[in-house]
């Protein structure tokens, strides 16, 4: 999310994407075969919570919002997860701002490193992924074919995209926009998350930094999940 600098965009409701487990999205190109899904991580599971900050600095100001994230559902087979994100000290909002987001896990089967939507070009993708040190060993293969031939099942990091879908507890006039999305890198060893927000109409490379704060005790995992 980011400060909403365009008054014309306020009041527009974000559509909610319907996810059906029997129609999982597939990447184009060669079939990677019966590749196993990414291994479950005890720190990337339904109910797991994270806390940290998002840097929203731009030319006029510099600030960091306190951010809480909770994962609500995970479907590794289809490269999908969802959750909520709470910003606690948003200057223009009277209360913490909570959004619902849906995520794509880059697994080479359901999703590659190339976004292909949300106004992100392949050049935008590479600029953002390359900011993660853990991406460096993969960069050459990704530039070659999007990373379809990479076996990420045992890689110590999981790469994702998080797209906020709608505001949970406030209206669209809260002073924020959720038009963009996050490039996300999750560490399987300690559960830390780093990310960069992308929106061509917002200040670039707003950094998200989160640490795990609990062992997940609530939430749900699913083989079939539909949001309406």
Automatic annotation (TrEMBL):
What superkingdom does the record give?
Eukaryota
Amino acid composition bias (Polar residues), ranges on this chain: 23-33
Region Disordered: list its residue ranges: 1-42
Q: Which family does it belong to?
A: Belongs to the GID4/VID24 family.
Question: What is this protein identified as?
Answer: Glucose-induced degradation protein 4 homolog
Q: Which organism is it from?
A: Brassica napus (Rape)
**Where is the organism placed in the taxonomic lineage, from the top?**
Eukaryota, Viridiplantae, Streptophyta, Embryophyta, Tracheophyta
């Amino acid at each position: 999310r980011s400060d909403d600098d365009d008054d014309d965009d306020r009041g527009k409701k974000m559509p909610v994407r319907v996810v059906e487990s029997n129609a999982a999205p597939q990447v184009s190109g060669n079939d990677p075969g019966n590749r196993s899904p990414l291994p479950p991580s005890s720190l990337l599971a339904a109910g797991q919570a994270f806390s940290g900050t998002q840097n929203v600095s731009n030319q006029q100001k510099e600030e960091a919002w306190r951010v809480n994230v909770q994962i609500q559902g995970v479907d590794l087979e289809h490269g999908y997860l969802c959750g909520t994100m709470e910003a606690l000290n948003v200057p223009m909002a009277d209360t913490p701002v909570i959004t619902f987001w849906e995520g794509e896990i880059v697994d080479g089967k359901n999703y590659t490193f190339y976004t292909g939507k949300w106004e992100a070009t392949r050049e935008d993708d590479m600029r953002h992924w390359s900011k993660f040190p853990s991406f460096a060993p993969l960069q050459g293969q990704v530039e070659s074919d999007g990373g379809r031939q990479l076996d990420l099942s045992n890689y110590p990091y999981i790469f994702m995209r998080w797209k906020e879908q709608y505001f949970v507890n406030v209206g669209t006039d809260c002073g924020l926009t959720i038009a963009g999305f996050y490039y996300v890198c999750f560490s399987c060893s300690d559960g830390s998350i780093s990310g960069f927000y992308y929106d061509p109409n917002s200040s670039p490379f707003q950094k998200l930094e989160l640490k795990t704060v609990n062992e997940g005790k609530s939430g749900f995992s699913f083989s079939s999940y539909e949001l309406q």
